[in-house]
Here is the input.
Amino acid sequence: MDKHLLSAADLTANDITRVLDTAAHLAKVTDRAIKKVPTLRGRTVCNLFFEDSTRTRISFELAAKRLSADVINFSAKESSVSKGESLKDTAITLEAMGVDAIVIRHGASGAPWRLAEWVEAVVVNAGDGTHEHPTQALLDLYTMRQRFPSFDGLKVAIVGDVLHSRVARSNVLALTTMGAEVTLVAPPTLLPARVETWGAAVSYDLDAVLPKQDVVMMLRVQLERQRAGFFPSLREYARLYGLDARRLDAMADHAIVMHPGPMNRGVEIAAEVADSIERSVIADQVANGISVRMALLYLLLGGPEVVA
Amino acid sequence: MSRLLLKGGRLVDPASGHDGPADVLVDDGRVAEVGPELDATGAEVVDCGGLVVCPGLVDLHVHLREPGREDAETIETGSRAAALGGYTAVCPMPNTDPVADNAGVVEMVAARGREVGLVDVFPVGAVTVGQRGSELAELGAMARSAARVDCFSDDGLPIREARLLRLALEYTRAFDAVIADHAQDASLTDGAQMHEGEVSAMLGLAGWPAAAEEMVVARDLLLAELTGGRLHLCHVSTGGAVELVRAAKGRGVRVTAEAAPHHLSLTDEAARSYDPVFKVNPPLREKADVEAVRLGLADGTIDAIATDHAPHAREDKEVEWSTAPPGMLGLETALAVTLTELVGDPAPGARDPQPPIPGPPNREGSPPGSGGAPAVHSPSGYLDLATAIERLTTGPGRCRRVPGHGGPVAPGTPANLAVFDPAATWTVDRARLASRARNTPFHGRELRGRVVHTLLRGAFTVRDGLAQR
Here is the structure.
């Protein structure tokens, strides 16, 4: 693995397997009465969040704390950033404070690359603009691996706003690396230019795609996209691309439903689908996120041989 | 002023068609004589053996940031950068603070240029008041001012309303001025960060499609045809735009066009670093576009190379890609980028190929004659040297008036000259640029072609590669 985790494109199949295997070991920590190991004692992890994302920040915070690292939460809204401090100055400040790893969430695509140029610390991309979210992809793969023996030939549909989705980009990269067969489903206005070069199939017709899939991953659709005219109305979007009970029935019996959250119930996913005990693994994704992020911090900060 | 003899150089003077050995005698700021083996009596001799002598370069499109952003560049630092690049004339764009939309500001810019005295400064005036695109600025007043402006542009902020562009093209016919448009459809590029294509999709950066340039180029050409006005297209960057200009020229539309060195040499792949030094507007395009712009430059569809030299303060570029302003430096690298990327390599030994020396067969068993012989460089360039120089000197002079510049190098004309070594290589080091800013996309690149001397009206502004002031 590289020094940083910036893009899912930087991970080989071996890297991904190693992260998932390590996460499986570390998941056992969570099952203990005392959910903590001393692996990263004395190391400092900073959660540098320029965008609000309570769930991702908490997930990283818990992961670091369960490895006994010291955790600083740096939220742009309450910090000097709101007084005009640049990303570079923030980076220099954190570096001077001796931070070992910086977990960055930023609204600008590529911000983690800039940060990695300015600091010695390990940089973990926790979502950059409309670009990537590699730890989300890894926790999604972990969740799929709990249900399916192999990624080879696994059929995964990613449905929704692919154009603006960092989850979609990272998942396509990681899944194709592992040999899965990805199909992107969206209205043409929400697909990126030259998407045919991504190594994934493309469809505008959710109903045609659904029955063949092992995994159906629904993406959050933001109201602002409708306002920008990418589709006429949320109602029409839900009708054409929403996963409701009727469509759930069209899926294969073994197929699972995923969503990176937060969900728009009634838009891209119906409440009964999200809450389906047999099909929905959405709560598993959240739980697995902690184990996978523990594994990443552990591997990137160079802990000793595997614990647990 | 003393007499100066530029001796033993290769004079490339596109305006007269001369390309070959010639001495140039300069007396009292003017060219006194051009010819072989001129008498050096009473003149200081400058040895130009192995060097190219040509008219001083002319840049149609620069941003000198004065007035308003003197922390990024000033007329003085920009002039020095220009002189070091072989330029004797530059045309600063009006997007300053205040905007150069009236006689007062353009006269101030021109006067400050004269005071600095390193290059001649020919300001571009704004087309509309404050470049706001709502009403025409006093174009006539700027044309009749001491700055004698004959080129107007709302560069950076394209003229959205077709009616207004039509009026500008019509109105300026009265004083034979040219409207230089930055072709960009605003609604298709709202929030755009880079060229729209495979790379933008992967990088998650909002795309600036080629069509957004081409549809405005098409509109502009139709309006030029309708009005009979003179249109100049700034920084043409797509294959489709080149094709539109080529067709329009074919039917006699009064249009000229420029291309920037970065659009002739770099592609959108550079954005993968997320380093905003590669962010520019219009954006770096794809390989096929670069190829098409090169071919357009070669066949004369594009008249001029113009740098769009856009200095930015360090803190403005040391940020996230989407926060950074677009623009890159160009004045000190344009000639070398052109020679390196577009002109066939005149490697030493290739110019005077020696016949292979007959000798004993090579012990390693390679065929006779291959061992030790200099590699034969096929001149794989897009332009020959004379055409490249034309696009940097005389070509710009076709787009707007730059009196005294662009050649011909003939007795009686002002001695505005550049002397460069076409074979010398050097490595771009942003720390050593004369520009106040550091945002060159060519940092660390080895380039071929080095400016040795620049003369403005017979006086060295650059001598032996060093700015004289």
About this structure: Chain A has a mean pLDDT of 94. The two ends of chain A are 22 Å apart (CA to CA).
